[in-house]
Amino acid sequence: MKWLTGLLLSLGFSLAGAWELSGNAAIEGRGFFQDPLDSRQYDNDYSLSLDPEWAHEWDEGRQSFVLHLFGRLDRHDDERSHWDVRELQWIYAGDGWETRLGIGKVYWGVTEAMHLVDIINQTDLVENIDGEQKLGQPMAKLSLERDWGTLDFFLLPYFRERTFPGVEGRPRTQPRIEPDQAFYESSREERHLDFAARWSHYIGEWDIGLSYFRGTGRDPLFVPRLLPGGEVVLAPYYEIIDQASLDLQATLGEWLWKLEVMYRDSSSDRFTAATGGFEYTRVGMFDSEADLGIVGEFMLDERGDEATTPFNHDLFAGLRWTANDAQSLEILFGAIVDWENGSTLINLEASRRLGQDYRLNVQLRSWVNADKNDLQYGFRQDSYLQVELARYF
Amino acid sequence: MKKLLLVLLVFSAFSAMAETPEEKGLAIAREVDARDTGWGDFRASMSMLLKNRHGEESLRQMRVKGLEVENDGDKSLIVFDQPRDVKGTALLTFSHKVKDDDQWLYLPALKRVKRIASRNKSGPFMGSEFAFEDLASQEVEKYTYKFIRDDELDGKPVFVMERYPVSKYSGYTRQLAWIDRERYIPLKIEFYDRKNALLKVLVFRGYQQYLDKYWRADEMFMDNKQTGKSTLLTWKDYQFRTGLKDSDFTRNSLKRIR
User: Which among A117, A86, A118 has a CA at the least distance from the CA of A103?
Assistant: First the structure.
């Protein structure tokens, strides 16, 4: 972390002028409909979170500095009570190039249900099992923007372990995953220097990205371990992987066609996985101001039942209702169905603004027909309703 | 000399008569466009005050950057500051004269740049009474035209003309526009929905001239005659020729926005 201290010394203290603060504070409640499989787990839960960001821009916008923190206090789950530096970054951009140094976040990909090729940041899984919350990733990044596309190069000097629900946490796997038992293929463990490169471009209706990653894989394998107390847990095992991926979107009128494909090579396996589909949006439904979107996507993993994701031979179908009103009401309803074993995850997300500064978010996740051979089997009693009220500042 | 003048007058009167209402409408639209060419780039802040039938208000604040592109539609970047829950969300648009615009939305929480279907332009912009197409770059080629009559609006001589959207995805059958005869700028536009019923009335107020040439309205008031809702759009801090470049309007630049 020496370079980080140096960065702070050279930049942080010389920064004068206005720092802009923004973010939100939220209160969240979760209610579960059934008794937990493990009696140590809770029935209902509530928590508080704080998500502040400070940003400062100078040199006519060419340079900026961002500090973005996140913290949560959870009533029951010690693992979910956590904090993280989401961003701590110095950004320097010129005409056609950009460098970023520090802790940051990067998103790759086009699909809605599964984010297959997005690999730079580790998933903050205790936050939400949808995998969309990410931990800050230490990086040095160089981007070059040319007529023939954008090239990004990443050096990733430090690996972040995935977060998992604790003993009391829900929803969680059975047996639980014990992050303290994590082990690595690389003898350098989390200090292995990872590397990534990406070319992205758009040509007319097409947006395309080709990426390569070499380093510690973000999604672990799991190995059963017997703890001294006699409890069996799953230990995360982080392999060194090579991964090449493609993400592609065609924007044709009201239709978006999407595809993500990746090939991964590690000492334990070589496989291909893909997800893709369409999103069709109809504007002004029934002479109203509302839009209705229909999303259909497949998820396929060559490893089949051996895959480390439950979405190995699955279909997602969803409806997105956007009211386009002053409160920005949005409702997303969908289901992911495994076409081989029938396991189904039903998902409802709704949100609207209250007044000028508050937002209400409601999520319902329900596991139906969870099959023994599906990785979601452990969640079969964990269907829940989550309500969050956030105050933005 | 007098004879020549007379001949010229008769000739010009004749040629004026020969000009069809469609030709005259197009000529006016071209003149509006020609007089608004050459501004280069601009920055401004924009606020929208949304009001519903019951008088409840809601505020949006945005920063806007625009870049003039020769022989094509303009590039624009809109960054949201208010409401706070969408702060940092940004919309990048490469508009085109005839084909669909290219549009990307940046979602700051996910750091995701998402290409969106720009054809969905009849939809409301941020819950306001302005549709995306009302705020888009107004290229001559996006409409066909018809001159209706000479008239006066608030004591100012105006052309009244109709324009018909070329795109079948437009939410309108036609728009009736009052164009200032002296300055060639719109003062008022009526929007007619797909059933050809009056939907909205837009009034431009407080025109100011920039760079001794380009007129911009301080306020644009959109009144929905069917729902009783309205949106007051206010422009502030217009700056022209600030040195913006193509590289300020890229998908990558979206991720740098604060």
Answer: A86
Cβ–Cβ under 8 Å, residues A69 and A54: no
Per-residue pLDDT, B91 = 93
Whole-structure pTM value: 0.90
Q: Which of B85, B110, B245 sits opposite A95 (nearest CB)?
A: B245
CATH number of B22-254: 2.50.20.10
Return the H-helix or E-strand segment holding A7: helix A2-11
Tokens 């504070």: give the residue: A25
| Cα–Cα distance measured from residue B26 to residue B164, given in angstroms and rounded to the nearest whole number | 11
Would an 8 Å CB–CB cutoff place A57 in contact with chain B? yes
Which of A57, A91, A254 is nearest residue B120 as measured by Cβ atoms?
Answer: A254
User: Which ipTM value was assigned to this complex?
Assistant: 0.92
**Residue A6 belongs to what H/E stretch?**
helix A2-11
**Residue B219 CA to its chain's centroid (Å):** 13
Contacts of residue B241, Cβ cutoff 8 Å, sequence gap at least 6: B39, B40, B41, B42, B211
Looking at chain A, which residue has its C-alpha nearest residue B118?
A253
Tell me the domain boundaries of chain A: 33-43+86-392
Contacts of A328 in chain B (CB under 8 A): 83, 85-86, 126-127
Domains in chain B: boundaries: 22-254
Whether residue B13 has pLDDT greater than 60: no
- Selecting from A105, A281, A284 the residue whose C-beta is nearest the C-beta of B111 gives A105
With CB atoms and an 8 Å threshold, state whether B59 touches A356: yes
In this structure, the number of other CB atoms found within 10 A of the CB of residue A201 comes to 16
Whether residue A165 has a cis bond before it, omega within 30° of 0: no
Rounded to the nearest angstrom, the minimum Cα separation between B111 and chain A is 6
How high is the pLDDT of residue B169? 84
Split at pLDDT 50, 70, 90, the class of B72 is: confident
Is residue A278 over pLDDT 60? Answer: yes
Q: Which residues of A touch B101 (CB under 8 A)?
A: none
8 A C-beta contact, residue A96 and residue A258: no
Q: How far apart are CA B26 and CA B7, in angstroms?
A: 27
Which CATH architecture does the domain made up of A33-43+86-392 adopt? Beta Barrel (2.40)
In angstroms, what is the C-alpha Rg of chain B? 20
Q: Which two tokens stand for residue B180?
A: 């200032």
Give CB contacts under 8 A, 24+ apart, made by B128-131: B128/B48, B128/B50, B128/B60, B128/B222, B128/B231, B128/B233, B129/B50, B129/B200, B129/B222, B129/B223, B129/B224, B129/B229, B129/B230, B129/B231, B130/B48, B130/B220, B130/B222, B130/B231, B130/B233, B131/B171
Vertex B94: Cα angle to B93 and B97 (nearest 5)? 125
Half-sphere exposure (Cβ direction) of A352: Cα atoms closer than 13 Å: 12
Residue A264 has, within 13 A of its CA and on its CB side, a CA count of 25
What mean pLDDT comes out for the span A363-382? 93
